[in-house]
Design a protein that fits this description.
The chain has about 120 residues and is an all-beta fold. About 0% of the residues lie in helices and about 50% in strands. Strand 5 and strand 6 form a beta hairpin.
Length: about 120
């Protein structure tokens, strides 16, 4: 069983920045395929960014150039650096891991973008 714990959410003004973290359990974190998802009220959960075990990244078009996903395998932690935040970025952000054909989710962290 893999446990994922997100942190770093909060209230930020439009144009501001936040860095989310996802701490993962397990001794093979470096092999996990990891991703960030988000879900705004009344909307479906959507993929934000992914990072492979080799560090290859992909982003949703809506966040390209503003968000950066990364991982530190020595700390079993994944990050999402979010810059130039917009009101449309407000959502609960979820950490996701895909390991041996199983999917794991964190509990989510709230990001609010408002002046």
């Amino acid at each position: 069983q893999v446990q994922l714990v997100e942190s770093g959410g909060g209230l930020v003004q439009p144009g501001g920045s936040l860095r989310l973290s996802c701490a993962a359990s397990g001794s093979a974190f470096n092999t996990y395929f990891m991703a960030w998802y988000r879900q705004a009220p009344g909307k479906q959960r959507e993929l934000v960014a992914t990072i492979t075990s080799a560090g290859t990244t992909n982003y949703a078009d809506s966040v390209k150039g503003r968000f950066a996903i990364s991982r530190d395998n020595t700390k079993n932690t994944m990050y999402l650096q979010m810059n130039n935040l917009k009101p449309d970025d407000a959502a609960v952000y979820y950490c996701n891991a895909y390991i041996h054909s199983r999917t794991y989710w964190g509990q989510g962290t709230q990001v609010t973008v408002s002046s």
